[in-house]
């Protein structure tokens, strides 16, 4: 990590910094996408369908959720609702990116919306907070840099996994990439009571509701985490406002 930080400091262009910052994620994106390609073909999807799935959705957690429910012959409405619930966090990501990239031209905003995934959001948030004086063009260039080693390999390794198919056993252990990727992204962001309470509540409720069919426990955990996090943030802001009034 120290080497990556030093390399980032040596790179002057925003795009180059984004590429360097995003490079470590390829070690989790590659096996994650590889595993999805393998599982998708084993579930009956063709190579083209597996690749189209990744291109259209580009959201690993939602893709695995939808694929698992499809193999269980869950109702279409449940598959769609579960995938949407898993991706509800994207709405919060979008809101967080709006002050930085929301006034860009429509075609640039469309690119940001499409490539706004967990990793690009996490890197973008940290970068924009560290360099708030950057121009919108530089922020957009940095965002493009982050997606280059993250999103492009997602397509490539989905194709490789789908093409290899049964040649790569699903018990190889490639699924380690899923928790590692999310821990790497979430860990640095748990900096406030609201973030920590939302993460803890979401995890606790999801585990407690794991017995529900069709992964509905995950939906319950996500909703509970968002509600608790929002309430904690509201209480924190009110206390800060009262302290400010008292100090004045």
UniProtKB/TrEMBL annotation:
Its chief place of residence is: membrane
The UniProt keywords, alphabetically, are: Cell membrane, Membrane, Transmembrane, Transmembrane helix, Transport
Q: Which domain of life does this protein belong to? A: Bacteria
Q: Any stretches that span the bilayer, and where are they?
A: 20-41, 47-69, 76-96, 140-157, 163-186, 218-236
For biological process, the GO terms are: L-valine transmembrane transport
Q: Where found, per UniProt?
A: Cell membrane
Topologically, how does it sit relative to the membrane?
Multi-pass membrane protein
Q: Name one Pfam family in it.
A: AzlC
Extract the InterPro entries matched here.
Brnchd-chn_aa_trnsp_permease
A GO-annotated cellular component:
plasma membrane
Q: Which family does it belong to?
A: Belongs to the AzlC family.
Protein name as it appears in the record: Inner membrane protein YgaZ
Biological classification of the source: Bacteria, Pseudomonadati, Pseudomonadota, Alphaproteobacteria, Rhodobacterales
